[in-house]
Amino acid sequence: MFYPKNAEELKTIIRDAAAQGMPLVPVSSGAPHIHNASVNTAAETVSFEKMNKVMDIDRRARFVRVESGVTFGELIPSPLTMATKSSSES
Question: Are 55 and 11 in contact (CB under 8 A)?
């Protein structure tokens, strides 16, 4: 299994796999590994869990730009974190 940390590492993985004729199966960090993948041949898995940067948040436009490994849980505050933030702002 591959765990690229950025786009450059991902490009290298894809380039090397293509040169070897090796199929790749992408898996996001929020899903169990190979949960929905149906692979009939030997393939390597590429997990995006380490590509987890939030690159841009525009609250007015309700727009977020993230890397593939960011989960909804990392974007949407839980009631606990909201309570902690509210009490620290008082």
Answer: no
Q: Tell me, letter by letter, the H, E, C secondary structure of the chain.
A: CECCCCHHHHHHHHHHHHHHCCCEEEECCCCCCCCCCCCCCCCEEEECCCCCCEEEEECCCCEEEECCCCCHHHHCCCHHHHHHHHHHHC
Burial group, residue 75, by CB count within 10 angstroms (0-12, 13-18, 19+)? exposed
Domain residue limits, the chain:
7-89
- Segment 16-55, tens digit of pLDDT: 999 999 999 888 765 554 544 555 567 889 999 999 898 9
